[in-house]
Amino acid sequence: MKRIFQIIYFLIIVGIAGLLSGCQKIIDHWPKGHGEEKIHCKIKRIVSNDGYEVRYYYGSKGLLDSIITIPDHSNPSPSFTYLKYDESNKLIEYAQHYERDWEATELHHYKYEGNRVVQDTLFSKTLGAATIVEDLEYDSHNRIVGISGIFWYDDRPSLIEPLEPKTYEYNNKGNISREMANGYSWDYPDYDDKVHPWNTDPVLQFIFRDYSKNNRLPGPTSYNDQGLPLTYPGDDSDSGSAVEYDCK
Q1: Rounded to two decimals, what is the model's pTM?
Q2: Contact 21, 142 (CB under 8 A)
Q3: Domain range spanning residue 239?
Q4: pLDDT tens, 18-60?
Q5: Which end of the chain offers a freer environment for a tag, N or C, measured as fewer CB atoms within 10 Å?
């Protein structure tokens, strides 16, 4: 399994987001846990064994509104990510800052058809002042299965380039079985029978482009009573990590 902190690092550095799931507003499209029961937990924080920490904060409506990274010696810079919604709970802005009061280094705006995000426009200062426009394709289960689009550097707006397309395939158990991008493919044949942590919030599923029901193996080493991962093992490049939840 791709270690959870590798995925978080991908979010923090690259700023991939988009955030509405399928044809329903976020607040109405809540994922299921074991069987068909609603999951009553939200991710509170993820902490590596060497001190790197990511904290998740939710607003009064229960919507994810910020993700804050707490640095350690190997990751010395904090990061502040803020999500903004309109009065109908549609995401209208996703902004990442490397200092709380600085101008956003990653800013996403969204185009809708009905309640579905069909286009994600990223204004990036970390990628050489570039604009990236992603067109999103869904399957019948309201999962993103294809991404295409264009990009240009702001100092050369007339030189528009196509994005390399990216696709996701799901197996009959609801897990990503293959991911393809930039002429490469990655197969994921092995999963446990527990609950993937992104299933606690459709916002997180959309951010990470991963609607898998279960966890890739090798993966978690312990779980809570709702089947959510609590600990991940380390290896030569990772000290391991633990996940804390707020469960009702």
Answers
A1: 0.79
A2: yes
A3: 4-247
A4: 222 232 333 333 344 334 456 889 999 999 887 789 999 999 8
A5: C
